[in-house]
Each structure stands twice: as C-alpha cells, then as structure tokens.
Amino acid sequence: MLTKRIIPCLDIKDGRTVKGVNFVNLRDAGDPVELAAQYAQENADELVFLDISATEQKRKTLAELVLKVAAAIDIPFTVGGGIASVEDVDILLKNGADKVSINSAAVKRPELINELATQFGSQCVVVAIDAKQVDGEWLVHLVGGKVPTEIKLFDWAKEVEQRGAGEILFTSMDHDGTKAGFADEALARLSEEVNIPIIASGGAGKVEHFIDTFTNGKADAALAASIFHFGEISVPDLKHALKAQQIAVRI
Fold first, then answer.
1. Which pTM was predicted?
2. Out of 11, 88, 212, 220, which one is annotated catalytic?
3. Is 11 marked active-site?
4. Where are the alpha helices (DSSP H) in 9-152?
5. pLDDT tens-digit profile, the chain (251 residues)
6. If DSSP codes are grouped into helix, strand and coil, which group holds residue 241?
7. Residue 48 DSSP SS3
8. How many CB atoms lie within 10 A of CB 161?
C-alpha cells in the first residue's frame, strides 16, 4: 500500500510566508527557510513552495530563495509561481527544486505540460488547479484565483494527465483557509477520472479533515498551510493520529 503524504505549503509573497482565506486577506506566517527546515525535521513527506504573486506581477519565482530553502531541507521540494517555459523550470531544478508546479501558464498554453514532461519527465511536473463551484459546476480559475474561466475541472484534469502531468494539486477556492474540511466529493471524483496522484488542498482545520480526505476523498496526499505555520497541528501529531486510524503514513 502506498503511504499517504503530508505536505506543508509555503505561500511566498515578497520573500515571506503568508496565508489568507479564500485567496485574500493575507497575513505574515514567518520566514520560509526557517519553516522549511522545521517541517523537514518534523518528518513532513514533501514541501510545496508557491510564489503566489509571481504570475500576477509577471515576475519569475525567486530562484535565490529556492536555493536557500533547498539547502535547508532533505525532503522532496516542489516550486511554483510564474513558471511559463522550459528555461524557467531548468533554473529552478538547478537551484534545488525536485518538482515544479504550473497553473495559469498551463491553461493558457497547454503544450507547456507536454514540453516539460518530455524534457524533465512526468515525475517532475505537477499541475496545480484552482477551482470553485459556479452554479453547481466546478470551474477553473487563474492568476491566484482572480480570473474565472469556462474550463471544467474534470475535463481539464483529464487533459493534463494525457499531456504528461505526473500529479495534480487541486485547491478548492471555496474551502481555502476556511478550516472546514477538504472538498472530498470533488477529490473522490478526480481520483476516479484520472490515474495520477491527487494532492488535496484547501480547507484543512483539524485531524479529522485529513482522515476524511484520505478515506472519503481518496486523496494521495494532503497539503496544508496555516494549521502548520501557526502551530495548531504538528506534522508528527497528525501522522500518529492517521496511523491510529489505519491510514498508511511514513512516521
């Protein structure tokens, strides 16, 4: 049985870790290098680093900060934000990233997924999908959730798999920062419709939410930010609680 992964997420703006609710009202959550080192020591399975203002500001991800984070940790490390080309990815991988996460650029030019998978391998390519329910339909949103599209979540998920993505990071904008639980119904459907791992994001508030998303939501990994950054749940405590529920995790 594959173990379920716990992934702290560092949302970076202007070199600091931040966290908001429903993608807005950001507050400072600390130094990203210090947080990254702490999570590696606590046995987090992976780390995700998203430069959340990179796409909006037409600016490349902070490669220098990536280098510092990579030097401080010994766990797989995914970087996203403002990535739009093979060259962008090459720089990040050379600075210590293990995987990259692409979002808006992939929607605007889907061939980018094929190019990255061909150049670096599918295992390196994570496609992040931000979606919210509009009139009962899950629709993809871009630029940190600010730009709605008519693209349907499940259609897009199938396309990114076909184009060579190795993993999907699905964030429910309706659940983000609410601490009311993950979008387990949508996650379960995603896991049925595609054959690549699904990372659940948006809504983690307590241990039960992780249990639910791994069982009902069929997620392969669960990502969270504020509950870890602000010390509400620790990674070790969460993993022990999951193990007690017979959920396979790496302790």
1. 0.92
2. 11
3. yes
4. 32-41, 63-72, 86-94, 104-108, 111-120
5. 689 999 999 888 776 666 554 445 555 557 889 889 999 999 999 999 988 765 544 445 578 888 999 999 999 999 998 899 999 999 999 999 999 999 999 999 999 999 999 999 999 999 999 999 999 999 999 977 788 999 999 999 999 999 999 999 999 998 887 889 999 999 999 999 999 999 999 999 999 999 999 999 999 999 998 889 888 999 999 999 999 999 999 99
6. helix
7. strand
8. 19
What is the rounded CA–CA span in Å between residue 126 and residue 76? 13
Structure-token pair, residue 184: 């387990």
Cross-strand bridge partners of residue 9? 48
Active-site residue, from 130, 176, 212, 220? 130
Query: What is the distance between the alpha carbons of residues 210 and 115, in angstroms, rounded to a whole number?
Result: 34
- Both tokens of 182, joined, read 């993950």
The pair of three-digit structure tokens given for residue 101, joined into one six-digit string: 């996460």
Mark whether 51 is an active-site residue.
Answer: no
